Amino acid sequence: MNWLKFTAAARIATILGLVAGATWADDTADDANAGIPDAVVEECLACHGPLDSLIEKTEGWMTSSGILVNPHITFDRSNQASPHRSGNGIIPCTQCHEPHPLPLTDPVPEAGIQTCMSCHHTGTFRSCTDCH
């Protein structure tokens, strides 16, 4: 997935939904993760996991307005349209992270709350339709 090829609206739609209890205006959006095999997540977790470790590393992420967010926690969104929704409950890593080659050819940028802000540009983690 190359983020540079996405429009700003597509990036926003891809990232929204990191906060527990978020609701969505409708459930007509296609599941952005349809057809992504568990193997994609498993491949990433082979080096970057386990998932519990990733959750722990990002448990203190906070927006400038003081909202705690953790992008590695998954929520039951079976009744909500969300670009983070996944049939297996795990959001594919490539929704937020650019895949890198193995072996590494260039340094991989450190992820941080700024990664979320590339789409959650208001820092509020509200539905896109609240503003757009």
UniProtKB/TrEMBL annotation:
Q: Please report the organism this UniProt entry assigns to the protein.
A: Maritimibacter harenae
Lineage of the source organism?
Bacteria, Pseudomonadati, Pseudomonadota, Alphaproteobacteria, Rhodobacterales
Q: Enumerate the subcellular locations listed in this protein's record, separating them with semicolons.
A: Cell envelope
- The UniProt record lists the Tetrahaem cytochrome domain at 39-121
Say which domain of life the source belongs to.
Bacteria
Q: Which residues, if any, are the signal sequence? A: 1-25
Keyword tags: Electron transport, Heme, Iron, Metal-binding, Signal, Transport
Protein name according to UniProt = Tetrahaem cytochrome domain-containing protein
What Gene Ontology molecular function terms does this protein carry?
metal ion binding
What Gene Ontology cellular-component terms does the record carry?
Answer: cell envelope
SUPFAM superfamilies this protein is in? Multiheme cytochromes
Q: Which cofactor does it need?
A: heme c
